[in-house]
Each structure stands twice: as C-alpha cells, then as structure tokens.
Amino acid sequence: MSALISELNPEQLEAVTLPHQSALVLAGAGSGKTRVLTTRIAYLIQSGQVSPHGILAVTFTNKAAKEMLVRIASMLPIDTRGMWVGTFHGLCNRMLRAHHQDAGLPQAFQILDSADQLAVIKRLLKALGADDEKFPPRQVQWFINNAKEEGLRASQVETYDDFARKMVEFYRFYEQQCNKEGVVDFAELLLRSYELLTRNEHLREHYRGRFDHVLVDEFQDTNRLQYKWLKLLAGNRAAVFAVGDDDQSIYAFRGANTGNMKDFEKDFRISKIIKLEQNYRSHGNILDAANTLIRNNSGRLGKNLWTSEGHGEPIRVYNAPTDFDEASFIVEEVKSLRAEGVVLSQIALLYRSNAQSRVLEHALFNASLPYRVYGGMRFFERQEIKHALAYLRLIANPEDDNALLRIINFPVRGIGMRSVEQLQDEAGRQGGSLWAAMGHKYRGDAAFGPNSGDKAQVRLESKPWLDKPKKGVEGFVALIESMRQVCEKLPLPEVVEHMLEHSRLAAYYRAEREGADRLENLNELINAATSFVHEAEDDSLTAFLSHASLEAGEHQAGGGQEALQLMTVHSAKGLEFHSVFLSGLEEGLFPHDNSRNEVGGVEEERRLMYVAVTRARRRLYLSFAQSRMLHGQTRYNIPSRFLHEIPDSLLKWLQPVQKVAIRNEDWGTGRKGSGRVIHEPGHGVPARPADIRDSAASQWRIGQNVTHARFGAGVIVNCEGHGADSRVEVRFGRTGTKWLLLEYAKLTPA
Ligand code: ATP
Ligand code: MG
User: Is 0.85 exceeded by the ipTM?
Assistant: First the structure.
C-alpha cells in the first residue's frame, strides 16, 4: 500500500484516500489528476473497500482507458478484465450489448461511425427527394446529433418553423431507417443506454447496486446527456469522484458543459473541492507561459500552477517564410533532438487542424523519420479497411444496407448503378432491407443452411426485375452466404483472412499499381483481430466490429516501432511528451477562423492553446509560417495573438535557416529561389499514394488518365483534402496543370 501512495503530495493523498463520498478534484494541467484517479482505484481495491467489480471509470479516449488498466494491473495483481473502464461510448455499448433485448436492439447491432452516419443520411435525403442545397446532409447530421445529445427523440423536438419541421421529419425517417437496419450511431449509444436505465427500474437498480465507485476523468468535457447518464447510474449510493480542469474545456462546441461542474457540486452535495497546484510535468518556463496565456480568459474558476523544477530551457519560436520551410525546420530539430538521445515517441508534432499534417508528413517521409498520425484519418476509417469491415458486417448481419451498398460491386462483379437503384426501389416497396429485396428474407442464423445458395437461385429466378444483373447478384448472395457459413466455425483472425481472400479484396489491391500500402493495412487488420482476440473478454465478430467503430486508431501499420507522434491538439489532451512542436501559430489557423465570430470562440481556442503548451515536459517549440498552402490556396497570415500573449522573456527567437531547404527535386514543381518558395495552386507538394485515402477521392489515383469536359485529356499528378474538400491536380495536355474540386469537376477515367 505504502508503495502506491508514498510519492503523493498531501493534497493528492487526501484525494486518493477519501472515504466513500462524492468529490471533485479541480486542478490544472499536469498536476496529477489522472494519476490520482488511477491510484485511487488501486487503493480502494487493495484496501478491500471495493471489489474490481464495483468500479466504473470513465476516460476520454480508448487509449487512456487502456493505459489506466495497464497502470492498475502494474500496481495490483488482479485481472482487470471484469472492470468497467472505458469511454462513455464504450461503456454504453457494453451495457446495450448485455441488454440488447430490453434496449430494443438486435443482438448483433452495428455501430455507425460519423462517416457511415452521413452516408445513411445522404441516402435517405435522396430517397425522400430532398433538396440538398436547402438541407445539406451535414447540417441534417448535426441537427440529429444535437437533438440526441440533448436527450431528445424526433417526437420530442419542438419546432417553430418549416425548416425545423423538415429537419425533424428527416430525423424521424432516420430513426426508422436505423431501427430497420439494426444500426446505432455514436450519440444513439448514449441516448439509448440512458433511456434504458430510465425506463427499466430493475436494470437501474441492478447497476446502482453494483457500482460503489464511479470515477470520471476530464470531467470538464462531459456533455449534458453524459452527465445525466452518470447521475442516473450513480443514484444515491455510489461515490462519484470527478477530476477536471475548467481551463482545459475544449469541447464546448460539441455540447460539453462546464456548467456540469456547478451542477455536480449541488447534485452530489460536494462539501469540499480538492485543488492540486503543484505541476509535476513541465519546467518553469513552459508553465509560466501557460499560466500567463490562460489569464487572458474571463470567468475562470481560478488557480495557478507551480513547479519545484527549475525554469528549464526557453521556449523556442520560429518564424518560417513558408509552411514547407516550417516543416523542414521541424525535421532538422527532430533530428538533433534524436541525436541528443530523445526517443522519437517522446516527441509530438501538434497542430490545430488535420489538414496541416500533410506537409509535415511529407517532410518526415522524405527524411525517413518514422511517424504515426493519431486521430485524423483513423485506421478503421481508411477506404480499404472500410471495405473489409463492410464484408465483415454483412457476415454478422446481411441486412446492413450501408455495408451492402459499399461492397455490392467492389471489387467489380457486374452489378451496376442501375441495378442497385432497382434494388433500392424494390426494398422501398417491400419496406425491408436490400438483402431481403434480393430475394433473401433473412431470418437470423437459422435461415442459412448448406443449401441456401440454391434457395437463392430459386428466389432470384422469380424476380423479373433482376434479370439482367442476375448473375452478379446471384454470385454476390452466394459469396456472402458461403462466407457466413465458413466463418461460423473459424476464429476471428481467420474469419478476416478468409474474407479478404474470398471477397477478392486482397487480390484487388495486390494487382493495383499503388496498392501496397493498402494491402499492408489489410494485413494489419488481421493483426488487429489477433490482438483483439487476446485482449477482449468477448472475442466475437460483433464485438470486434464495435471495437472498430469505437476505437481511436491505435492499431496502425508501423505502430509498433519508435515513431514521432503527430496529432491535433484536441487529441493530445491528457498526454505528455518530452518535446512538443506546435506549428501553424497563425491568425485564422489558431485561433481558427470559425472561432472568431462565435461568442466565447476565441476563449475556447485559448484553452486549446493552453492544452497544447502544457503537453510539453522539457522543450517546447512554437512556429508560424508567413505563407501557407491550405486547401489548394496560398494564405498569408499574421502570427497568432497567442504568441504575443506569452511574455517575451520566456521566448527565444530562432533565426530562419539560411540554406535553401526546399529544392525543386524534393518538392515537385515548387519554384527555385532564395530559400523562399511560394506555392500556388497548381504548384503543390506531390502527395504520396497513401494520401488518397478517403472515399470521395477513392476512385482516383496519382498517375491515372482522366478526361474533363472542358480541358480534355490529362493525368492526375497530385491530390489533397478529404470528403467534400477533395481535390486533384491534373496535368492537361492542352491547358497545363489545374487543381479541381472533385465534387464539381465531373472527371471521367480515360
Ligand atoms: P492533464 O490535465 O494534462 O490531464 P493531469 O493533471 O491528469 O494532467 P497527470 O498526467 O496525472 O496530470 O500527471 C502529470 C505527470 O506528473 C505524470 O507524468 C505523473 O506521473 C506525474 N506526477 C503526478 N503526481 C506526481 C507525484 N506526486 N510525484 C511525481 N510525479 C507525479
Ligand atoms: Mg489527465
């Protein structure tokens, strides 16, 4: 026991050893909140006050949950698998799986991630004939999620005008569609679990009796529904131990609510708020910078951090002529840090927006520095992985329309758009799934037997509207059914392997000229399944699919090796590194353009900046570029106001490197000059093939020949952006190179 608590300071010790009562620890970055929370769990178990079974702990990311379990396991010789430690989504998923019938869900219900959800909404709007200029799918998505996070069903949303009434109508159709397909989105996990506990007294009492201690990390970022869920679950008996920092509240835009802290004090009769003020993470200069910066915000609960460590090194500031120069500066510094003995995984490159990572990635790639990108494009969101998951989803539940649409003709099997539309019409008429419309009234596992392929044929023959694509559809149905049969008997990793071969996905990418990366990712999926089977209590295919929807992308190719850590500031929350590079400190980028017109927007950006600065233990680099190419345009920005808010005495300005860091050979068509390269549209950085990784851009690859109605024949030489922002650079024979927005360009493969 003493080993557990011997290093704690008196305030930390008090928090760890509090008796069975609710408590709020309110403290700044790096003061040991997470450590206190983890140690308290170990302490409670070791001192016999609670069994692992009686603990529920909520963390913000899966990564944090995993780390927490590892830390507890290292402190205590117990099996942590029975403990409920996870994110809100993860825990709700666990509850809904256990009580799917009470929750009105099929056993193998699937989880839609945000992109899947958008796809369902788009499909729905199209089917309803909605004008997508008036009702942009993203706005509908936002409306639905917002309502759910407020705890409201379509029937409960109040409307005051036609527009809102229309939105509610879409919400209602969306609800019906999801119920029909047996799928739930992220917000639904929480709402349904909340409704389940509200409605079902028996279950509510069961969980209230079970969880003696409920512990919540990053409490400042819980939204309203999450708070209500916690309150419902805790009842009057459980002790809720919440730790948080109002200065690090960075999800207000998503409904997180520091008002929850005030309510918490009241609802849980908190008599004393524990404050921790000693920072164990950063050297003095870094801490001073963070403290001074955040003082510019109003309405803080107020606290200051101090450290017993020295001032340490000054904060290094670099003024780069261009974003490319900024990237090569970072590369050089990383190399010298490494030469000083700092391991790469202890170095983080942070940025405000995902779009900034591309230039950094390119420079790192050229310098052969291994790196790993967190967030952004998550492993499970890559195109090839999505295809593979769609097959797995169909194996788990063939009535998943979303999955079916994704791969019904991928790899190509002669089922064209027209046939798919006919199928959709037929499904609409029957009011069932696409699978059912194919002539297969799927009735659970019993529905398919050794002869189901034959049955399929018989039924298909009686569908005149399917005559033409019959062969393709027949083949597809038989393929999925045979996979379902074979996979019943195989362990999960072999299911994945079998699927990859028999779907011909592996063969497809093997044959692709630039498919090596994608193939590697597909192999990584087998590895992910293998480690899932080792780690998870429930190693079923359904459990694996939920994991894929919920997990934050820890399984990445190359993830095992020592690598630089690249991520947005949002995803760096709670983490720490020896050295941190924060790039793109420009007005418009950080603080972000969007924030400037919103009430409290800049203050939220400042809290984000506070989070970024406090990730660094020993060394912090801040940099900005005078010109930057983003979304195919060169922007000229002034340095961020946040830079000016840090006292000059803490900063050391570095001189721009004089050498020509960027040469034509390195950067494609960048203009040669005095070390300053202006990148204009049409003079972008050549993207690596792996950069085309989202679905909008998925059918295009670098090197592909294309035709444009006005510009004629050309070849794709570059690409960037995601989703609706996806662009390609095409070199046309007649007119030279042009950047084109894929959404509008109407390119056709030549
Ligand atoms: P954040 O707000 O960024 O999430 P935090 O308050 O959760 O920060 P921790 O991550 O728990 O802070 O702790 C920061 C660092 O300080 C960790 O490396 C932790 O191990 C260390 N630390 C915390 N308390 C002590 C202590 N009493 N003695 C030594 N190191 C400590
Ligand atoms: Mg923490």
Answer: yes
